[in-house]
Write the structure tokens for this entry.
Amino acid sequence: MPFEFDIVMPLALFFITLASMFLNQKTEGKLKSSLEERTFGVWDTVLLVVGMVVMVYLIVIVRTELALMVIFLFSYSMLLFLFTYVFSKNRWYLAAIPPVIFVVLYVLTRQTTIWDVYLINVYAVIFAVMITLYLQSLFTWKTSLVFVSLITAVDVMLVLVTRWMVSAANATRSLQLPVLVTLPTFPPLEFPMGLGLGDFFFAGLLAIQAFKRFGKRFALASLAAMSISFFLFEAYMLTYRVTALPGTVMILVGWIVLVSVKMLTDTMSKTKTSQGS
């Protein structure tokens, strides 16, 4: 069996997450201020994960395309409005422009190649970054670890056991909504590869929390480790024709190995220092 791989999506994961990580330095202050410095507690994090599961389940059971379209368009439009509102110094008339443009482009061009190939991916990248910047500002290191643990376990269940995540992806794909970043492969394969916005948020949260706790150099190393881990899992999928794997697992393995080594070496260093003194 020939070994098949793709470098485009791992590179996209790296650079989109890198953009979120560096943009966070410029945006976090204003976003935290708009949220009145609120952060998630452990129970808030648990409720967020439960809400995500409920949302996936509703997408699976609600087969009415119009209802799904309205829900997603409203959610995306509110995200665009909130971001523009915060960074336009609370000018609502400016904040209304991006969501109006988005909805108009979706309605008028979604049956065309312009949307199907280009605009859908442009908006998917924009929303991936926005979701990361907005939600990560609510997390601390502790609640990030709680969220990562829970959402990874849930992702494994939804992808490999119940298959709800696969069904949800199929339900939204026909609507041409920007829920995935879909890119051609290199080396060229018969089909493009797609990665959900939730997976980009997951990687962004890990990278930003690593930045805050261990600094920029380590965050960049952890981002590289996540991308390499994703590349290896993706190559396994392509080579052995595996239809779906939990994206969280594909990303988390590289991060957790690097963070575990970092924390172990820091602990050993502190022990040696205390013994020396």
